[in-house]
Amino acid sequence: MTAPDPAVAEAMALLDGIGPEEVLLWSGAGISVEGPTSLPSGPELTSRVFDTFFEPGALARVLTYHQVVGLTTTPLCERDTGLPAARLPRLETALDAAARARPDAFPDTFDILDDVRVAVPNRLHAFAADHIARGGRHVTANFDTCVERAHEARHGRPVPPDAVHHFHLSFADSPDGKELGATLSAIRTGFPAAEATRMRALLRSPRAVIVLGYSGSDYFDVDRLVAALPADDLRGLRVLWALHSAHPPHLPDVPAESAIPLQSLLRTAGADVRVVCGPTDLLLAELARRWGLPPPDAPRPRTPAAPRLTVTDAERHRATFLLYRSLGLHREVRRLLEEGGTGADDPVELRSVRSQLLWEAGAWSSLRRMWRRAPADAPDRSVRAERIGACLWAQGRLLAAWLWLRRQRSGVAEGSDEAYALEETLNRVVEHMHRTPDLRPLARRLLARMPAAPEPAGTPPAQETGEMQETPDTRAAEAARDDNRLRRVAAFRALQDVRDSLDALRRGGPRDDHTHADRSTTWFRESGDLQGMLSYRHRALRDGYRADDAAVTDEALRERYEQLLTANLFLGSRAGAWRVALLPGAHRVFAVREYLFALATLQYGWWHRFRLLAWYLPRRLRHRAAGAGRRTLLGRSTR
Predict the structure, then answer these.
(1) Can you give the CATH number for the domain in which 38 is found?
(2) Are 236 and 201 in contact (CB under 8 A)?
(3) 296 within domain boundaries
(4) Pair (43, 143) in one structural domain
(5) pLDDT tens digits, residue range 434-491?
(6) Is residue 324 assigned to a domain?
(7) Same domain? 539 vs 582
């Protein structure tokens, strides 16, 4: 008998003394790629969705934006060479836009997964079936039922109850695909309560977990569920994570902050995680030998057969427009709006689009006039009230903003979405008053009388843990509330953010805990919202600035601010770009003419421009007198 590869043997030592009945296999799309199953890998399926539902070139455009804003892949192993590549857009985000673009053919959208419905098992499914026959259990992110089919074919009976669990459901659970965890709307609110309970039990019950063919990219539910586990909750659990590659087998050096965050989260929860990189065959052969299972067959060639759907040009235009909006690609949204390729004929939707574009252009006076002229009894009247106040706030007309929002808030029912939107913007106005010397005394008085910002109704703190505390346990019942739940998630993030900041101001200092801004940056990054990601990156830079931090040189600060400015400009957000000039330490990196340009470019109020200039100029002059700051943000000499 051939001795196992030394690296495989070292990895397998983690499982010494553990039998198959004490092991949970955790699988992803990677186990269904081999023939005869021949299902697409994650990148292949993303390309398929873009080729089918979106305008030609849409994927390449999105990847270009990802590269510029720094949304790139991280090598999983030190032997992976080459520069970081642009990260693919999230499949669920793309499918979400495709489904929303075809409301009359919503179920047909999931025909793009027809090959998943009818997939036949391969040797990896057979191995998983044999493991189940020996008392093991299986949890998977896959929609196919190949493990169940393999078990019935090899052992002549269905899998035992609860032996296989699909945490995003399968086509056996949802034949038309509507309830699958395949769209962003379905997953980004986290696991329902019953599903979260079941997943925690699955993680706590075995002695070991073996991960096969799984990317670990389920941030919204799996990651958040594991992140919420108490420290040492998984103490004693051993996790062997197999990374399939053509490299000779080895145990990669996995840093504390792994490229796959779930690995780090499992460690934090107390699990002993070991990663082995190399051909999966060698690992399976050794597992089969240890457990007395039939050795895996030789791999069979792939015979992929992508389903073909009929999608009209109008549906492609509409899906592309919705996708670009969800990703925060304002330059592309503006282009499609000018070309008439939005597929939107609802005046409320068009007003919302124009509102967002004017906001990101920093045209706040123009935007306020637009909302003033909007019908006061229109369906978006609640947005109208909040946006007018937000424009006054962005312009630095803080007292006018506070008076307007307070008056609008007084006539709104407690607990409504409108109330929370107005409350959040009102609190941000007070926060900025406190940062403004001439209004700080008033802000302190207001803060003393203000209660802590409330949490949105129906969105408990569990929202941050990946668990939705809904009473119905079926996703069909929850689907009807998806839009409302997604609004609640956004409201929760915004209110938590401003509440943290106001609480810090009450204590008399800056916010020391930056985890909320970092967590929000991750949340928007994972959903694909590039503008949301950059907005919270701005927030993190603001809250994290310390003037006495000698480790942050002018050059390092300049690089951070320039990256943020450039990324915003590329997205088409002039406001996001030149608001960088308002960050603390701007006097260290912006020359006078650049600062004046930033103030003139955006539609600030005149008093606010004077206020900002009065803050900046003395600091800039002192900095120059000290012999620093001779190079500007954009690399030009200040001489």
Answers:
(1) 3.40.50.1220
(2) no
(3) no
(4) yes
(5) 889 999 999 989 888 876 544 444 333 333 444 433 333 333 333 333 444 444 455 5
(6) no
(7) no
Whole-angstrom CA distances from 333 to 57, 330, 337, 338, 349 are: 15, 5, 6, 9, 13
As given in the structure block, the two tokens for residue 109 are: 């959208």
Distance CA 527, CA 344 (A): 23
Read off the pLDDT of residues 56-110 as tens digits, 9 standing for 90 and up.
999 999 999 999 999 988 877 777 766 568 999 999 999 999 999 988 877 788 9
Cα separation, 186 vs 492, in Å, equals 18
The residues, any chain, with a CB within 8 Å of residue 226's CB and separated by 6 or more, are: 203, 262, 265, 266, 269
Q: Report the number of distinct structural domains present in the chain.
A: 4
Tokens of 265: 């989260």
Mean pLDDT across the chain, nearest whole number?
Answer: 87
Q: Before 454, cis peptide (omega within 30)?
A: no
Q: Domain for residue 366, yes or no?
A: no
Provide the greatest CA pair distance for the chain. 85
Q: How far apart are CA 181 and CA 544, in angstroms?
A: 36
Closest CA to 511 of 538, 537, 542: 542
Element (H, E) at 388: helix 381-394
Tokens read off for 282: 């060698």
639 and 523 share one domain: no
Domain around 565: 545-639
Give dist(CA 88, CA 50) in Å, integer: 11
- Compute the C-alpha angle 473/183/567, nearest 5°: 130
496's CB contacts (< 8 A; 6+ apart) are 455, 464, 516
Q: How far is the C-alpha of 583 from the C-alpha of 546, rounded, in Å?
A: 11
DSSP state of 223: I
Let me know: does 370 contact 354? Beta carbons within 8 Å: yes
Burial code (b: 16+ CB inside 10 Å, e: under 16) for 396-435 equals: bbbeebbebbeebbeebeeeebbbbbbbbbbbbbbbbbbb
Secondary structure letter of residue 106 according to DSSP: H
- The count of C-alpha atoms lying within 13 angstroms of the C-alpha of 418, restricted to the half-sphere facing its C-beta, is 16
Question: Strands 467-468 and 23-27: what pairing?
Answer: unpaired
Q: Six-digit token pair at 620?
A: 């800039």
* % of the chain exceeding 90 in pLDDT: 64
Start-to-end CA distance of the chain, whole Å, equals 76
Using the 3D structure, point to which of 503, 523, 558 is the last residue of a domain: 503
Q: Is the pLDDT at 221 greater than 90, yes or no?
A: yes
Residue 584 contacts residue 540 (beta carbons within 8 Å): no
Q: How far apart, in whole angstroms, are the C-alpha atoms of residue 561 and residue 577?
A: 9
Sheet arrangement for strand 137-140: 164-166, 137-140, 23-27, 208-212, 238-244, 272-278
367 domain residue, yes or no: no
Cα–Cα distances in Å, from 15 out to 203, 208, 509, 604? 16, 7, 50, 63
pLDDT tens readout for residues 547-579: 888 888 999 999 999 999 999 999 999 999 999
CA quadruple 527, 530, 531, 535: dihedral sign: positive
Q: Rounded CA gap, 44 and 594, in Å?
A: 45
Structure tokens at 628: 């620093």
What would the 3-class secondary structure string for 340-368 be? CCCCCCCHHHHHHHHHHHHHHCCCHHHHH
Under DSSP, the state recorded for 192 is E
